[in-house]
């Protein structure tokens, strides 16, 4: 038996680190090795992995190797054999989970600062786990193991290592053929995260694959979990500045920016202007719809988008003859809907992109490859291509500190009743009634799961309309 934690504070920390879709907290304050061992044991129980295999990978954060080792101890104690894949991106861990048909644990805090770490858990086949689909049960069982110790089994599991990077790179190359595109110069900002390992393997020759017609200009490829150059969170505009400058200075065709665990990819065009994730989602959706139709797939083709992507995404999907499936925000929710609907692709405003051919999991690298394939088959600049998929004006996410969310909602209802339609699928979505001779607009306000914040996203037919609606709603929210 692995002994119980010697502090009830560790048990309290467990509730603090288990989030809606993953586990995340401050290293050695909230997330500790005893907690990790207990979570591992509970995970093995939940996914019935005793006698089977669990995959464990980790990012470049200083604490990740020892947390991965603690997880291996806890999992082996409950009878699971552990395959350690070492340094990897999150989507590489999904590849291992899918290709090996094994549940997996990935140690990363994604885009969070260096003081954090966490665990992304998957069932076999890269199937996500959320509070509603097993994470709450893991949390509760782990709390018991922390208090009473982890009971050993008659046959503890063994721990072995396996390098899957080359197989992962070859798998992606098999999904998107870039060999015939025109030569492109690309600046890639890895943010000192895991893209520094995966980009040279997938887009370069580091994994022994044939050379592609790509000239890569690396930016911050050194793996460094202290993030010495900028936070590995490209969703924040300040973290794109170095990439934007480098694209212009190098005369590059485009730039790619990955977050810390490299499962999200953001794009800038040749002028250094950010391409919206919605435009990328629309482009990839068209390619995936065309691909399955060309392969002879008949019947309904579904593509998923969350409710705060640009309206251009469902419009593009429907014009291509496919069915646009609208969902709430959240990666585990979308993974569930991918399985339920058999959707060929799914896109989120946050630059998470999901693929049926990748076990329904998200893969920023694969989305980037689709974009490169589409762009590389054309002659114009990326700004020209992206403009075709950016017909409306977007606000981006605007956060406001709000203590009384129902009161804010009530003010919005009162102000927009009679000139808008309301939808409460996820937060509050308000769409203007264009029949009253007003330009197209909509907005969504959603409360944060972890902070007293309301998140506002607005889209309008033009910049003036978007700004007008944005400012009106912000005044109501912050009243």
UniProtKB/TrEMBL annotation:
<keyword id="KW-0460">Magnesium</keyword>
<feature type="domain" description="Alpha-D-phosphohexomutase C-terminal">
    <location>
        <begin position="397"/>
        <end position="475"/>
    </location>
</feature>
<dbReference type="GO" id="GO:0046872">
    <property type="term" value="F:metal ion binding"/>
</dbReference>
<dbReference type="Pfam" id="PF02879">
    <property type="entry name" value="PGM_PMM_II"/>
</dbReference>
<keyword id="KW-0479">Metal-binding</keyword>
<keyword id="KW-0413">Isomerase</keyword>
<dbReference type="Pfam" id="PF02878">
    <property type="entry name" value="PGM_PMM_I"/>
</dbReference>
<protein>
    <submittedName>
        <fullName>Phosphomannomutase/phosphoglucomutase</fullName>
    </submittedName>
</protein>
<feature type="domain" description="Alpha-D-phosphohexomutase alpha/beta/alpha">
    <location>
        <begin position="291"/>
        <end position="391"/>
    </location>
</feature>
<dbReference type="Pfam" id="PF02880">
    <property type="entry name" value="PGM_PMM_III"/>
</dbReference>
<dbReference type="InterPro" id="IPR016055">
    <property type="entry name" value="A-D-PHexomutase_a/b/a-I/II/III"/>
</dbReference>
<dbReference type="GO" id="GO:0005975">
    <property type="term" value="P:carbohydrate metabolic process"/>
</dbReference>
<feature type="domain" description="Alpha-D-phosphohexomutase alpha/beta/alpha">
    <location>
        <begin position="18"/>
        <end position="133"/>
    </location>
</feature>
<dbReference type="InterPro" id="IPR005845">
    <property type="entry name" value="A-D-PHexomutase_a/b/a-II"/>
</dbReference>
<feature type="domain" description="Alpha-D-phosphohexomutase alpha/beta/alpha">
    <location>
        <begin position="168"/>
        <end position="272"/>
    </location>
</feature>
<keyword id="KW-0597">Phosphoprotein</keyword>
<dbReference type="InterPro" id="IPR005843">
    <property type="entry name" value="A-D-PHexomutase_C"/>
</dbReference>
<dbReference type="InterPro" id="IPR005846">
    <property type="entry name" value="A-D-PHexomutase_a/b/a-III"/>
</dbReference>
<dbReference type="InterPro" id="IPR005844">
    <property type="entry name" value="A-D-PHexomutase_a/b/a-I"/>
</dbReference>
<comment type="similarity">
    <text>Belongs to the phosphohexose mutase family.</text>
</comment>
<dbReference type="InterPro" id="IPR036900">
    <property type="entry name" value="A-D-PHexomutase_C_sf"/>
</dbReference>
<dbReference type="Pfam" id="PF00408">
    <property type="entry name" value="PGM_PMM_IV"/>
</dbReference>
<dbReference type="InterPro" id="IPR005841">
    <property type="entry name" value="Alpha-D-phosphohexomutase_SF"/>
</dbReference>
<dbReference type="GO" id="GO:0016868">
    <property type="term" value="F:intramolecular phosphotransferase activity"/>
</dbReference>
């Amino acid at each position: 038996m692995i002994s119980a934690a010697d502090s009830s504070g560790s048990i309290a920390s467990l509730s603090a680190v288990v989030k809606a879709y993953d586990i995340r907290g401050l290293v050695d304050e909230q997330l500790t090795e005893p907690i990790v061992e207990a979570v591992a044991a509970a995970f093995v129980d939940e996914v019935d992995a005793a006698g089977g295999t669990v995959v464990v990978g980790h990012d470049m954060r200083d604490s990740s190797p020892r947390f991965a080792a603690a997880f291996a101890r806890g999992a082996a104690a409950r009878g699971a054999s552990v395959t350690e894949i070492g340094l990897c991106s999150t989507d590489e861990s999904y590849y291992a989970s899918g290709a090996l048909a094994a549940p997996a644990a990935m140690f990363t805090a994604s885009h969070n600062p260096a003081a954090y770490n966490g665990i992304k858990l998957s069932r076999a086949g890269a199937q996500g786990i959320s509070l509603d689909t097993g994470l709450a049960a893991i949390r509760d069982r782990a709390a018991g193991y922390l208090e009473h110790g982890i009971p050993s089994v008659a046959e503890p599991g063994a721990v072995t290592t396996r390098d899957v990077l080359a197989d992962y790179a070859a798998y992606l190359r098999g999904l998107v053929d870039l060999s015939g595109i025109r030569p492109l110069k690309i600046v890639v900002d890895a943010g000192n995260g895991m893209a520094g390992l995966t980009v040279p393997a997938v887009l370069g020759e580091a994994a022994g694959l044939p050379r592609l017609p790509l000239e890569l200009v690396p930016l911050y490829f050194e793996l460094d979990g202290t993030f010495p150059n900028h936070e590995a969170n490209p969703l924040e505009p300040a973290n794109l500045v170095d990439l934007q400058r480098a694209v212009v200075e190098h005369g590059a065709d485009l730039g790619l920016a990955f977050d810390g665990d490299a499962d999200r990819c953001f794009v800038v065009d040749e002028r250094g202007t950010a391409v919206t994730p919605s435009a990328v989602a629309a482009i990839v959706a068209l390619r995936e719809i065309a691909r399955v139709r060309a392969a002879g797939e008949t019947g309904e083709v579904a593509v998923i988008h969350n409710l705060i992507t640009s309206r251009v995404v469902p419009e593009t999907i429907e014009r291509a003859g496919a069915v646009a499936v609208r969902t709430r925000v959240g990666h585990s929710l979308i993974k569930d809907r991918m399985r339920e609907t058999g959707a060929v692709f799914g896109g989120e405003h946050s630059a998470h992109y999901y693929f049926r051919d990748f076990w329904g999991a998200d893969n920023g690298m694969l989305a980037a490859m689709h974009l490169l394939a589409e762009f590389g088959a054309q002659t114009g600049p990326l700004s020209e291509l992206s403009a075709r998929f950016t017909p409306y004006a977007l606000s981006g996410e605007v956060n406001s500190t709000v203590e009384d969310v129902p009161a804010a909602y009530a003010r919005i209802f009162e102000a927009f009743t009679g000139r808008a339609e309301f939808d409460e699928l996820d937060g509050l979505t308000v769409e203007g009634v264009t029949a009253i001779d007003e330009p197209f607009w909509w907005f969504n306000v959603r409360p944060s799961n972890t902070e007293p914040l309301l998140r506002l996203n607005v889209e309008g037919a033009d910049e003036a309309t978007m700004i007008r609606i944005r400012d009106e709603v912000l005044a109501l929210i912050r009243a």
